[in-house]
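Batch manifest, entry 17 of 40.
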Amino acid sequence: MSEAAAQAPVQDWRSLESFAFGDSPEMADRLLGFVLAGAKTATCWSVAEGEQTHVGKRMVVRDGAGRPRAVVETTSLERMRFCDVPWAFAEAEGEGDTCLEDWRDGHQAYFTRNGGFSPDMMLWCERFRLVETTEAPSPPPCGEGSGVGVLAPAARDAQPAPAPTPPLPTLSPQGGEGSSELAR
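Output type: C-alpha cells
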C-alpha cells in the first residue's frame, strides 16, 4: 500500500466491523482513552475467540456506551503462548503496567473472568495504529435532521486524554456497524 493510501481517511467507516476493548463499559472507556492518547498500540485475546482481524484490516472502536470513537488498523498479528509474551509487547498495550509481572497479573484476571486461563494458553497478539478519531457532530442547518459524528485523521502527536471525548450517536444497524461484538 502506498504512503498516501496508508494516510487516507476512512471514507465509509460505517461499513467497518466494530468492537470495544475489555469486558465492561468502564474498561472499554479506560482502554479507549489509552488508544486516543497514543499510549495503547497493541492488544491480545485468546485464540479460542478466533482470528478477529488481519494485517491491514480497519475496525471501528466503540466506547463503553457503544458509540463509535476511533478507527484502528491492524499492523501485525501473531500467535503466541501467554507465558511467552515479551515485555515489549506488554508495554505496547499501554495500560500503565510497569513490568511484565503486572501485565501478566492483570491479563490472568481478565482471561479467568472470560472463559478460563492457562499460562500456556495461545493468544492472538495484535499491534495496530490509530487511523482516525471521532469529533463531535456539527449542529445541523436549520430545519434539517441531526448530524452523525464524523471521523477525523488521528493526531500524530496526540496529548494524553483522561477520558474519551464527548458522546456521539451510536451507529445504527442500517449504517453497517457490522455484526462483530468483539471485546479485546
